[in-house]
Prior knowledge:
This protein is an alpha+beta fold. The chain is built from 4 helices and 6 strands, in the order H-E-E-H-E-H-E-H-E-E. A 6-stranded antiparallel sheet has the order 4-3-1-2-5-6, with helices on both faces. The longest helix has 19 residues, at 2-20.
Amino acid sequence: xxxxxxxxxxGLGQAWASDTQPEGDVIDALDRYFMLRYSGGLLYLPxxxxxxxxxxxxxxxxxxxxxRADAPDAAFNHQRQALAGGYGCREDRECPACPVxxxxxxxxxxxxxxxxxxxxxxxxxxxxxxxxxxxxxxxRYNRILDGCWDIPKEAR
Length: 156
């Protein structure tokens, strides 16, 4: 029964695609810019600069890091290790331990200025806070401790 449902769904998807003719989209997969917020000892997940530009109120608190990396997890892992003091990651321009470049850091306003100075002027993008149910959910942030990090229960 399960295989039949799955086959039927695939057929519906193929029918939709052939009837609708959706346009493809293209993104730069290398050297992407990310913004990460560090506030209250917590490092939040990387954000697309358009989403960070839409931050309001207390979402702007803390220190913001502007990084260039190929993937958001590379940016997050780099900044987490740089803050915790492990694995050789540093906040130098080009990290000697991983393929991430730190553009700079500062307040939200300073980070926005760093973006503009690099020619990154994305349109502000308001995105609802939506999480899809999944068996494994990544945490929204990590707590940075002296020399290490952890994932608080409330972050999941």
